[in-house]
Amino acid sequence: ATLATPALRTRNLTKRFGGFTAVNGVTLDIAPGSRQALIGPNGAGKTTLINLLTGILRPTEGRISLDDDDITHLPADKRVHRGLVRTFQINTLFPRLTPLQAASLAISEREALGKVWWRTLRSCSWVADEAHALLKQFNLAQYAHVDTAELPYGKQRLLEIVLALAAQPRILLLDEPAAGVPEDESGELFEVIAGLPREMTVLFIEHDMDLVFRFAQRISVLVAGAVLVEGTPAEIAADPQVRAAYLGN
Ligand code: ADP
Questions:
Q1: Alpha helices in the chain (DSSP H)
Q2: What is the 85 CA–ligand 1 centroid distance (Å)?
């Protein structure tokens, strides 16, 4: 792969649910290392598109490639092993686990250690060491032994990102990473995202336009399942179609 090869590419990606087209002929090229935002009104198809990219949903038409390999038919778990990783909401997944246990599980998943109990994992010291180091790196060490459900909400959302990082992603997909987080903390969360390794590619859905324009290098605007326009924040802000259809001025 040369520098010019997009990390992630879709061609004419389409998803129909019965007669309803949720994603309609989406063609995207996401450059390696880019911080790219996916914006659009509710129901535009953003989450469906992310689900197509991760392999949770199968497209009705079109193709997806990772580096230069066609992954359209690759199962979701194999995509994770190829470095295409999304976050999951931990407060629905692991309310009774501590961050240390959850991070240990995420690391063991990556290493294909199987579905082992955390009690067993605790005796596997390098996993626990790596989990500790990861939590420390993101200033979550003080919460290592607290049930995740007890963490302040902003820290829960940060932990979701940290758990995704345990999989060592090359491409990270974030569906509203700061949703529900108080405004004074959502910027902090995005500082963390901005501070991820430069070579990591990040595609995020975000509704808060201040955050989008502060942190995205490129923006794709999805309307009614289709890409209305794609460009730099300056291009998007100046685009009359976007202003009319989406920003509402
Ligand atoms: P967004 O994330 O931009 O708000 P979604 O991708 O969640 O949009 O949804 C796009 C459209 O597809 C919505 O109209 C939604 O109702 C519809 N949709 C999503 N998932 C399904 C499904 N499994 N079956 C039928 N319709 C769906």
A1: 46-54, 76-81, 90-93, 99-110, 118-122, 125-137, 153-166, 183-194, 209-215, 233-238, 240-242
A2: 21
Residue 1's pLDDT is what? 44
How many residues are recorded in the chain? 249
Predicted confidence at residue 246, as pLDDT, reads: 65
Quote the pLDDT of residue 92.
67
Total-model pTM: 0.91
- pLDDT of 162-196, one tens digit each? 999 999 999 999 999 999 999 889 999 999 999 99
Listed as ranges, residues in the chain with pLDDT below 50 are: 1-2, 249
Q: Give me 120's structure tokens.
A: 């067993």
Q: Residue 37 burial (CB < 10 Å; 0-12/13-18/19+)?
A: buried
ipTM: 0.98
Query: For ligand 1, is residue 95 a contact (CB within 6 Å)?
Result: no
Residue 232 CA to ligand 1 center (angstroms) comes to: 26
Give residue 93's pLDDT: 67
CA of 58 to the centre of ligand 1 (A): 14
Structural domains for the chain: 1-83+169-249 (3.40.50.300), 90-168 (no CATH)
Could you tell me which residues come within 8 angstroms of residue 198 by beta carbon, excluding any fewer than 6 positions away?
33
Q: Is 22 in the pocket of ligand 1 (CB under 6 A)?
A: yes
Q: Do the bridges between strand 226-231 and strand 218-223 make them parallel or antiparallel, or are there none, so unpaired? A: antiparallel
Q: Is the CB of 19 under 6 A from ligand 1?
A: no
Can you tell me whether residue 125 is helix, strand or coil? helix
Specify the DSSP element, H or E, that contains 36.
Answer: strand 35-39
